[in-house]
Amino acid sequence: MKALRRVALVSTVFGLLLILFFFLSRQRQAQEVVLGDGSTLRLVGALPGGVSYTTEEPWHGFLRRHVAGKYLRWLPRARTMNCGHAEALSLYFFRLQIPKDGRRGRFWERIETIEAGGHVYSNSSGRCSGSLEDGNQWVSAILSRYPRRDKRFPVILYDNEQQEIARFVVNNPNTTSFPEWQSDSFPITQSVGGTRLVLSGFERYRNDYGGFWRPQVEIMEEDGSESPYRLRYFQFSDPTGNRGPTLSPKEPVWKSTVKLYRPKDGEMPDEVKGHFDLAEIPKVGQVFPRQEVMTIDGLEMRLLFFSGPGVTTITNGTAFHAEFPDRDLATGRSSSSGAGGFTESWESAHHFVVIETADPGDDVELLFTIRDQDGKEVERMNSFHGYEGGNLRAPYRRRYTFPISLAESVTALRVDCAINRGLSFEFLVNSGDLLAESFQNP
User: Fold this and answer.
1) Which of 67, 161, 209, 306 has its CA 20 to 30 A from that of 27?
2) What is the pLDDT of residues 16-73, one digit of tens each?
3) Domain with CATH 2.60.40 in the chain
């Protein structure tokens, strides 16, 4: 009986080893490059943005399901990473044997991918990073532009001196089919909300990056009046999802998105303007909670508080506290959750005003101007904003903080707010016609 058990055990182990060998033999050999500092950069994955990369191999999972845990202590701990957005490509790297004085985090400046026809896509690249065992590191590069139709393509990393530091070949994980677009002929006319835009073509200019285009447009109001809108922004996109100032000539049709806005320093209609009055100036370490609400052009705004120099804390959205600590003050905001609830804290060496709004959405610009009792604009110091949602203040999604430098003569303030809604136009143009244009002087 014991002999039969030994035979069964040996057979089981042998079978598991065969299965293990089968799975291991299917694993693609990772590409590696030795960097200038002696560390090794290993490309371990290329996935659509938003899809997690895991170090858990299929054979790891098989063993965990079929073998008792005490025999699997040698298996590495699974690590899962997720970086990027749905329209991007995320490259995952392991950086190994990093010297003690080696640079961590993002150690490249720019990433290029090369299309089969030779067109180069350049990405400054967002990134994520984290720690692995034994002092190693994982890094992810987010590529928003790349050869989406190619099954495989080169990826080249450059340092801040524009020197190549690594080169890999990536298998494209995206197998999506793409729509076919039909181009229009110039001139192309579109109307949005009573404003008419005529696109008569593009002028091509040369710069240090090769070249760029400038749309030739005519803007008018359909009632015959002069249009208050001006061209602010445009970019190209193609059917595969790439966007940028120039795209692959292999794509016969490009989409040109043109956006118009009223000038920031121009006069805004009364229906898109509003203001908050601040009749009293807080002292150092003092806060005036306001919670005053107004709605402009359908967007709700709330004047949260006006604070003197120091640190202002709000607990659970209602309890305000201000102080001036005996230390140097930075400008910023932080938040935390604990037994006492949700706490937000702002600090600044200057007076500061905090306004929160609902998410204004795409193509909406919020304009804020702060003036004293004489109508003179006061100096704003490194204004910033952040997002907040899914907590006690869920309806209000964006927080604007305005540190301001106030003279002693200032006794009251007025915060003027305006909503500048952009108009977006889209045109389908023949890329061959654009590329045939000769270059002009900038």
Assistant:
1) 67
2) 544 544 444 334 447 888 888 888 899 988 888 777 776 656 655 566 565 655 555 5
3) 270-421
Question: What pLDDT, on a 0 to 100 scale, did the predictor assign at position 370?
Answer: 96
Q: Are strands 423-430 and 413-421 parallel, antiparallel or unpaired?
A: unpaired
Q: pTM for the full model?
A: 0.76
> What is the SS3 string spanning 302-368?
EEEEEECCEEEEEECCCEEEEECCCCCCCCEEEEEEECCEEEEEEEECCEEEEEEECCCCCCEEEEE
331 within 8 A of 380, measured Cβ to Cβ: no
Q: Measuring CA to CA, which residue among 87, 89, 84, 150 is closest to residue 114? A: 150
Long-range contacts, 268-273 (Cβ 8 Å, 24+): 268/367, 268/418, 268/420, 271/297, 272/296, 272/297, 272/418, 272/419, 272/420, 272/421, 273/416, 273/417, 273/418
CATH of domain 270-421: 2.60.40
Contact 219, 239 (CB under 8 A): no
**107-138 residue pLDDT tens:** 788 899 999 989 999 887 677 777 777 778 88
Three-state DSSP at 19 gives helix
CA distance 274 to 438: 48
Look up residue 341 and give its two tokens. Answer: 């609830």
CA distance 208 to 92: 31
The token pair that represents 385 in the structure block = 């904003």
Burial class (CB in 10 A: 0-12, 13-18, 19+), 348: buried
- Please count the CA atoms within 13 angstroms of the CA of 301 that sit on its side-chain side: 22
Is 190 buried (19+), middle (13-18) or exposed (0-12) by CB count in 10 A?
A: middle
Measured from the Cβ of residue 114, the count of other Cβ atoms closer than 10 Å reads: 16
Identify the pLDDT of residue 278. 96
Comparing CA positions, the residue from 124, 129, 117, 128 lying closest to residue 154 is 117
- Cα–Cα distance between 210 and 328 in angstroms, integer? 47
Residue 416: pLDDT band by 50, 70, 90 thresholds? very high
State residue 439's pLDDT score: 55
* Interatomic CA distance for residues 215 and 217, integer angstroms: 6
Q: How many CB atoms are located within 10 Å of the residue 80 CB?
A: 9
